Amino acid sequence: MSNLPVELLHSIAAAVETTPALLQLRLVSKTLNVVATPLAFRVITVNDSVKSADALSFLQGSDGSVASAVREVRFEGDLEEEQWTGENETSGEAGRQALRAAFSRLAKFANLERLRFDFHGFFQEDTQEISNTPTHFLRLQLDIFAALAAGLPPPRLVSLTLNNVLAVPAAIYAQPAFHAFLSRLYTFELSVLCEAEPEGAYLEMPLGEFFASSVAHMLRSVTAVRYLALRSSSERGHPVGHCPVIPFGDTRLPHLAALTLEGFALQPATREYDAAAFVVAHAATLAHLELCGCTIDGGGAVHFPRPWGAVLALFEAELVGLRTFAFTADPGGVDSGLRDPRFAYTWLEVDWGYLPMEEAVEGEEGDLPALESLMAAVKARALSDAGEDVE
């Protein structure tokens, strides 16, 4: 084996698909150990346990050839609530302490570029008030965020994905150290998890404060970001953008080139909270835009002064640098049968929540033509950039 060309050994190692197999391959020869090590440790997966946290800490103290190979660290929680029957089945205080220690030392991975947290996929907090006894699941998230803020940042870290962040406001989001950690990122993806009941829970604390304060703090922190993705709990039928709101205000991300919004209600009553205005404010840099499961909301008055056609026409006129545009329906949304599900309209019943609009909306006949016009303009720009003729 040691007599084989190094190029062939690289090809052999690259063809191995699983980390355990790569670890076994390292034992075959010294040469394969050198070749396989960077592949075996390029992605490290951690879960909610003391054993897993200790393993991450062990790697941080390993020799340079291993620690320097790490490019991505992933935390994987449990996505199904049935996997837990009580707090006694979690890692508890010991697990949180071990994970906090490990995540505060990420700078040991000198070449770490990406962090991804897929937190537990269920919500057990009190939706009516901020509890003095948060669950393990909320404490786990806050402990990890505190660790990221407290430790030295990995020098090459550019990407952070936070999935299933519990919609509970906390002081960590406003702390300068957490702001500093976020300010270095080029890619930031945030998805929020809540357990909003349909009967007006979006008007209650702490959910509204989380979006209005905590999310706003994070948004103002990612000043170097090139790609931003914001996803509400749209799979539960509760978009964000009208109630609750994100106060975009004068927030500007000077390098933003790509933006994804999922589960947003576009409602232009107040410009400070208008997601469409936030999009247009980045016309100078924005090249890629994706809207998934978004809706035009008519509020309690069921009034739609700016239908989808007007929003899309605004994008065509203002986003002159746009080169790709994706516009998709909520896969779990209710299809009224009255219109293309991509052009969703809702109205807000305070005592019930967001409801699909099951009647015709004035001006919606212009929605599809406006989309087709925008898509044609975007395609023409992309073809022009490539030096191809526009048909």
From TrEMBL:
The name this protein goes by in its record: F-box domain-containing protein
Family annotation (PANTHER family): F-BOX DOMAIN PROTEIN (AFU_ORTHOLOGUE AFUA_4G00200), F-BOX DOMAIN PROTEIN (AFU_ORTHOLOGUE AFUA_4G00200)-RELATED
Organism domain of life: Eukaryota
